[in-house]
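INFO batch 0412 | record 1 of 1 | parsing
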Amino acid sequence: MNTGSDTTLSFEFFPPNTPEGMVKLRDVRARLAAFAPEFFSVTYGAGGVTRDKTLATVLEIAAEGRPVAPHLSCVGATRDSVRELLAQYRSHGIRRLVALRGDLPSGMRAAGDFRYASDLVAFVRAESGDWFHIEVAAYPETHPQARSPGDDLEAFASKVRAGADSAITQYFFNADAYLRFRDDVHRLGIDLPIVPGIMPIGNFAQLARFSDACGAEIPRWIRLKLAGFGDDVEAIRSFGVEVVSSMCRRLLAEGAPGLHFYTLNQSAISGRILESIGFPHG
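INFO prediction complete | emitting tokens
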């Protein structure tokens, strides 16, 4: 297993809705910064509803001197609005973006100027050249709206051809799904880092809700174990740390280039996983 200097580490946050949330997030990222991540990323709400909060969070992280990667979403975005954001990010020295199609919010009909993430990637490249390192999404268990795994793989390839530099996967709990997807991508002649997305397990009901919505499979044996713990939060978290740590060790042993944690603005469980698999921290 490789947890050396060539193994990347990153953490995802969502923009807080309250001043108290911002204070808490400062503490969370200070704790996670001890693991020397390559970057923090900040999500962009459905239809751009958190645009201002995302921008504020991104600029605060950048002002602290920490590398940060804002999410950009196609949904509801215009060429002018994206051009404006790119200029702002560039003026603050931000060099990495996560370009996504995004989800259309309920009741919203207009998708914006960009239909697919590949369109957004191509636009960023045309506007900014090589200034930004562009991350895109990958779906080892197939995007829930894809017609077939083959179509989903082609959609991923189109993002790479448009100019993506690397990819972060949707979270999963089956390492074989990631390894098969990576190998399928390589068979297409595509060679770029595909970083596994890791979801710490802290709340079973919340995890089940997220997973049902995004198409991430929770293996039956894990569901049954988690359900059996009932309201025992510490038992759920300890089991989750054990299961996710084991998967992370295998992924790194099989050559995954790094790990990207969906933190849900929490630091404790991600930290326990990283300590369990031997990531050094200050």
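INFO post-check: Residues 202 and 237 are 5 Å apart (CA to CA).
INFO record closed
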